[in-house]
Design a protein that fits this description.
With 476 residues, this protein is of the alpha+beta class. It contains 16 helices and 19 strands.
Length: 476
Amino acid sequence: MTDCTREKYTFQGLSGGPRGKREVEGRFDGGAITSDGGAMLLREADKRLGILKMFTACFTDHRRPEWIEHEVYELLAQRLYGLALGYEDLNDHDTLRHDPLLAVAAEKADPTGQNRRKARDRGKALAGKSTLNRLELTPPDATSASRYKKIVADTEKIDRAFVDVFLAAHATAPKRIVLDLDATDNPLHGQQEGRFFNGYYDCFCYLPLYIFCDDHLLCARLRPADQDASAGTIPELERIVEQIRAAWPKVEIAVRGDSGFCREEIMAWCETNNVHYIFGLARNPRLLEAIVTQMKKAMKRYAKTGQPARVYRDFRYKTLKTWSRRRRVVGKAEYLPKGRNPRFVVTSYGKKDYDAAALYEKEYCARGDMENRIKEQQLYLFADSASAHLLRTNQLRLYFSSMTYVLLSAFRRLALAGTELAKAQCETIRVKLLKIGGLIQITARRVYLSFASACPFQSVFKAAYDNLQRLPLSSA
C-alpha cells in the first residue's frame, strides 16, 4: 500500500522480562486488520431500515453499465459509512479503498478487489477519491453524453427521503408532532459560491436551515448568509407539512423556533394552514412595560429566598406595524443572581391548551434539544464541510452528512435501546462501538471477523446486535 509498510518502529523497551528487558517493535504488516469493526452493526441496521437504498433512488446514473465497477449504492455506502466512522476527506478514501471491511459494508461482492479489470486497481475494492469526487461534482443537467460526471442527484427526491424515513419510523400516526426550526452558521474560508459576511456570526459563512422533529432530521438546506435567518422557511414547511399530512391526515402539527422565526409571514401561513406555532419574541420597550408588575414580584421573591424567581403574564399583543392581528404572548419575568432576565414567546395555542408556565417551560424550552442535534452533525459528522466552490456541491455534502446522521440516529434509537449508549451522541457511539479493532479473513464462502478480545463494550455490541435481529429486513 505504501513504501513504509515494512518499516520497523522501535519503541522504548519493556522492563521486567525474563532477560531483564523486552524489546518493543512495530510494523504495518498485520494484513487485513481493521479499526472499524463496528461498521458491521451499522450495515446490519441499514439492512432493516433501507435508508441507503432509499437514498440511492434519489440519483440517476447515466454511465454505461458495461463500464461500471462501482454502483451508485456502493459509492454512497462508502461515503456515508466513511463519515460515520470519522473520515471526513475524500483523500482518506485513497487508503480506505484497500479496507476489505468497508468493502463488505458497501456490499462489494469482491471485498478484496482481486477481480478488478485493471491490474493497477487490483487489491483496491472500493472507489478512490477521484471517483467519489465526480459523484459530488456532477451538474444537474448531466446526461449520458457527458464525459466524466454522469451521476445526477435529484435534490427534490432527497428532500422527500428525509421525511419518508421519519414517517417510516412510526408504526402508527402520532397525535401531535412539533417541528423545530433553527439556523446556524457554516464558516467559509475560501471563495465559495454564495459566500457572504454575516454580521451576527462575524464571519464569511453559509446560513443553513434545519428542521427537526425530536431527533428526526427533516430538512437541511444550505443558504447564502446575506438574508434573514427565517428566509425560505415557508416553502420548506409547505412541502414537509403536505407530505406528513398525506400520510397522517389527523395529526396535530406545531412549529417551534426562536425569535429569528417570529415573522408575520410565517405566523400567518401557520394560521391559514391549521398549524400551531410557538416562537420566541424579541423584547422591546412595550413588551418590557407589560411585565413591570411581574418583574417587581420576581425581584421580591429573589430577595426573600435568594433563589431564581419567575413570574408569568399572559396577554394579547400586536406590533405597531408588522403584525396583521393581535396574538397571545406569554411574558416571563425572571430574576437571577446576574439580574433581570425577561423573555417572551408568541403562540397560536390558547390558555385552555397550555397555561403560561407550561407553554414556556415545557413547550418552548424543549426546543433547546434541537441545538444538540445540529452540533452532532457539525462537530462529529462534518456538516460544516463546504470547501467546494459550487453551492450545489456543498449542499450535496450537507446531504451526505445529514443522511449519515439519519442512519446513526436510527441506529441509536433502535439498536441501542436499553443500553448505556441509548442517549449517547454520535461521537460517543463512534468511539465506543464503531471503532473496534478486528482481523478479517476472507474465503470463497465466508468473511470472518475476529474482533479485539479486549473491547470494553462487548456487552453493548451484543445488545445492539440482538435488538437488530428482532427487526424485520427492509423490503426496499
